[in-house]
Write a structure and sequence with these properties.
By secondary structure, the chain is an alpha+beta fold. It has 4 domains: 6-215, 3-Layer(aba) Sandwich (Rossmann fold), CATH 3.40.50; 228-311, Translation factors (Elongation Factor Tu (Ef-tu), domain 3, Beta Barrel), CATH 2.40.30; 413-497, Alpha-Beta Plaits (2-Layer Sandwich), CATH 3.30.70; 509-626, OB fold (Dihydrolipoamide Acetyltransferase, E2P), CATH 2.40.50. Helices cover 23% and strands 31% of the residues. The chain contains 16 helices and 35 strands. The strands form 7 sheets. The protein has an 8-stranded antiparallel β-sheet. A hairpin with a 5-residue loop joins strand 11 (258-262) and strand 12. The chain is globular, with a radius of gyration of 27 Å. The chain starts with 5 loop residues before the first strand and ends with a helix.
Length: 627
Amino acid sequence: MADKQKIINIAVIAHVDAGKSTLVDALLAQSHVFRDNEQVVDCVMDSDAIERERGITIYSKNCSIMYGDYKINIVDTPGHADFSSEVERIMKTVDTVILLVDSSEGPMPQTRFVLSKSLAQGINPILFINKIDKKDARIDEVVDEVYELFMDLEANDEQLDFPILYGIARQGIAVNDPKDVESISIGEGEQKIKKSPKGYGGLDIEPLLECIVKHCDTYPDRDEEPLQMQVSTLAYDDYIGRLGIGRITRGTIKEAQMVAVTKEDGSADKCKINQIFVYKGLSRVAVPEAGSGDIVVVSGISDISIGETICDPDSPESLGEISIEEPTLSMNFMVNSSPEAGKSGKYVTSRHIRERLAKELEVNVGLLVEDTESTDSFKVSGRGELHLSILIENMRREGYELAVSKPEVVIKRGENGEKLEPIEEVVVSVPDEYTGPVISKLNLRKGMMMEMMSEGNGYSKIVYTAPTRGLMGYRTEFINDTHGEGTMVRRFAGFEPWKGDIPSRINGVAVAQEAGSCTAYAIFTIQERVQMFVGPQDHVYEGQIVGMNARSEDMVVNPCRAKKATNMRAAGSDDTIKLTPPRTFTLEEALEFIDDDELVEVTPDAIRLRKKLLTELERRKAANKSK
């Protein structure tokens, strides 16, 4: 290749909601990636429908910008610990990371996680203190907290000597001194001003770009060496099939080139590259060849997998496996066996579910799928409730029907055969008047308080370690106990000895006695002692859970009972009935709510709760057997 392009690869890492995607928006906008008349949405990198709905990044994605004669490849990574496998595998492809930290919140549990992964790879980060215009910003304290975090993670001297920038990603501003922003006065009312491609108030993102160029050495020219490229991400194109994405460690790669692909078992298969793409802005652009240091997309290898190395066929040399932390939570995915099965879903058989899970395994390396004793059920393990619920949500949107069991923690055995369970670090921020119920509930769930401090403004910050199984189902209680004013974030901390029995849901449920349409008359008589999950005209079936009992035992009810006609008046001439609105569940709330003998039925148009055994007779027989 005639003139070697200067290439720097960076990743943006942070806790959820720190502003990663917003910062990438500013970098793209001020690098003139978009046309002047182009309509650009916020968080343009969050292109997946669920990402947009929930406002979180789930999948790591690539783009590139030009700064002077430098090409800067940018990877936007998820901030939620449940998608840690997305973060872990891209660290080998970047030269540095921009660590975003909120000027008020400071380092959070996921900040610690993503930073530890980058430091372990020997990367020297850049610190960006974001949202410095907040009224409760505590910039100097946050910087000190980040230094402490680096030392806790045993960063070396070079990593501790990180450059610090300050800014407001929403306004496209980066500065070397926070005092530089004081001159432009950005208040609460002005934060919604349309973003300019040149920043705001005469300030822009250029100091960050300058810092990246000064902080990072461009990738050395290794084009003449034998080819070596490790696949860190997979994608799929309807026209050209599976795509492998990764950085070329050395050598060059060309269209129609013969290569060797090293496998996990040490073998190497000879394959032919079809097309090569590089990133230009947000687009993939086909090129005849690409050189060392660049992040490229290759097509033509139909069975390429994450962690495999594309090499020169004359000297195949693997870059090793990409190690991913093990799953901590599992649940059973089953064929939907309810009376409503097949009415709205397109894919309903075990073969369909098996094929879909196999397809997910190709790109979701944090997932584990195992067969069970039943041919209609699969044990699926992941990094957390959100990790698994996103998969289920994607499946239902694609037309799949399935039933899923209550999530269970993955149990390991220690060196001496002792039982180990996953433990999480929990950081809660709550108003002072609600700290009592929160501490009480976490103590009941076998939590151990590590730290408690006042944040000012009437809020307290409490740090706990607690078993994952104790935290399942707690989020809804936490929201109720704090009247919606508290925040809670969790991070997997490791495996510890079994903590003993933890009390589960204390309320029983109301189970439908027969199939039919619910009536207002029946619901009115039931709702005195039951919080209803269904409303008038909703269709239910025998064994479906229609409400939560005020007492601890389950109760069989008939929400379909109609008022009979009498000699005195007709069936419909009742007084006006006032019904309490039914409680509706999101998928995560439903998974949190169910007990061991219950399932969540997931279809494209509904989420229902049901008993595993639908008839009352079957449930009684099972109860007698267990005694």
